[in-house]
Structures are given as structure tokens and as C-alpha cells.
Design goal:
This protein is an alpha/beta fold. Helices cover 45% and strands 11% of the residues. Strand 4, helix 5 and strand 5 form a beta-alpha-beta unit. The model has no long low-confidence stretch (mean pLDDT 96). The protein binds iron/sulfur cluster (SF4). Belongs to the QueH family.
């Protein structure tokens, strides 16, 4: 294969397996997605392990490269201290996005991957504008380019749910942190 036919790599921060197949398919039209699971927000450990197992199953089945960051539970609790009672879409979530996207951009830079994006905007509970702003700010610090997307658009969320069912993924009923589990 010559260089002209090679698609550029994009580091795709994946929040969980169910949110991934539709986004991976879409990005694959123009890029080679490299999956990156870094989600220190997910609690408790059993839930974290379950979500890792499912994204590993997806990557194995599709042949996509997958890297997993550390669990970093304490880092998340330290970062959101004082914001425990914030509602979803509030300040705690902004800190959570920043933590995850900063690590993804750091990893992309270390691997010479120029583009970064995230599955997070698939969720109807998350504001794409906020995620894209934080992504762009973080990417600029690491000399990579954040692809601003809103994957829930164009029926993206419905297609995501449909594809997750085809893969028979475990689908969690809360966002990830212990605070969202209580809501
Ligand atoms: S509700 Fe979701 S996005 Fe917000 S802090 Fe918790 S895990 Fe992170």
C-alpha cells in the first residue's frame, strides 16, 4: 500500500463498548481509528472491569488497535472533590471530560498520532459543545488536533444503540461515576 492510500490515524477515546461501533464505523471512512480506553471516573472496580472486558471484546472482534490507560480511581476523586453534588452536565462533568481528554491527547502525542476525538458526544446526556471546547483546549496543549464532532447527530444515538444490541454488549444504566449511580 502506498502512502497516498493510507488513512491517517485518529486516537479515539472510548468511554465504553456500546458507544463505540457506530463511531468507529463512521470514522473509518476517512481515518484509521486507534481506540484508547481511559475512564478513571468509572466506579466501582467491578463495573470498571466489566466495561474494559467489553471494549476488549469489541477490539478483538473487529481488529481495531486498543490501548487502555490506568484505572486511576484516586485521581478522579481528587479532581472532582467539592463537586460531588453537581448535577449531570455540571462542573463535575467538565472536570471529568478534561481528565479523560487530557490523557488521550497526551497519549496521542506520545505515539505521534495527529488527530484525537471521543465517543462521548454520542450520548444525548452530554453537551457536544462543552466536550469539543475542552477537547480543543487540551489538544492545543499537546500539539495534536481535536476533531470536533457531535456523534449523536444524524440519528447517531439510535444507530449506536442498535449496533450495541447487535454486539450484545453489556449496557450500563448510569454514566460511570459513583455520583451518577446515586442519581
Ligand atoms: S456523570 Fe458522567 S461525565 Fe459526569 S462526572 Fe460522572 S462519570 Fe463523569
Amino acid at each position: 500500500m502506498n502512502n497516498l492510500s493510507q488513512k491517517p490515524q485518529v486516537l479515539l477515546h472510548v468511554c465504553c463498548a456500546p458507544c463505540s461501533p457506530y463511531v468507529v464505523d463512521l470514522l473509518s471512512q476517512d481515518y484509521t481509528p486507534i481506540l484508547y480506553f481511559y475512564n478513571p471516573n468509572i466506579h466501582p472496580h467491578e463495573e470498571y472491569a466489566l466495561r474494559v472486558d467489553e471494549i476488549e471484546r469489541f477490539a478483538r472482534g473487529t481488529g481495531n488497535a486498543l490501548y487502555c490507560g490506568d484505572e486511576d480511581t484516586d485521581l478522579f476523586f481528587d479532581a472532582v472533590r467539592g463537586y460531588e453534588n453537581e448535577p449531570e452536565k455540571g462542573k463535575r462533568c467538565e472536570i471529568c471530560f478534561k481528565l479523560r481528554l487530557d490523557k488521550a491527547c497526551t497519549f496521542a502525542q506520545s505515539q505521534n498520532i495527529k488527530y484525537v476525538t471521543t465517543t462521548l458526544t454520542v450520548s444525548p446526556h452530554k453537551c457536544a459543545k462543552t466536550i469539543n471546547r475542552i477537547g480543543a483546549e487540551t489538544a492545543a496543549l499537546h500539539n495534536v488536533i481535536f476533531l470536533a464532532e457531535n456523534f449523536k447527530k444524524n440519528d447517531g444515538f439510535r444507530k449506536t444503540v442498535q449496533m450495541a444490541k447487535q454486539y450484545s454488549f453489556y449496557r450500563q444504566n448510569y454514566c460511570g461515576c459513583i455520583f451518577s449511580k446515586k442519581n
